[in-house]
Amino acid sequence: MNYDILNLYEYYGIYNDVDSVHDNELSEEYMSYQSIWKAVILQAIIDSTSNYKRMENKIEKIKANNWFNDYSQDFVNVCHFAGYSSLSVQNKAKKIISDSKFKIETK
After folding, report:
1. Residue 44 has pLDDT above 90, yes or no
2. Structural domains in the chain (count)
3. Sign for the pseudo-dihedral over CA of 62, 65, 68, 70
4. Three-state DSSP state, 51
5. Can you tell me the distance from the alpha carbon of 89 to that of 33, in angstroms, rounded to the nearest whole number?
6. Do 67 and 74 contact (CB within 8 A), yes or no?
């Protein structure tokens, strides 16, 4: 991902020790943001594979399944910010959801 798009670099120039420290701090900050977006994907997988009885949870399950299946711009953006290919996430999520449905049905 190009950090410049997110305006993470304040200027362009020759890197020295100060720039290196600044870059490391930006990398750490970027990684923590990336972790948040990964958690969003994980929560959607958890929601889509849940088997709760409450209506609120069933609605969240439907929303999560639709989010994976619709391939909306929101989904693509979240995958991008998480550092994942949206197609890979969609394929893996569909497999996980399918496997969880199979396990529930065979119980």
Report:
1. yes
2. 1
3. negative
4. coil
5. 18
6. yes
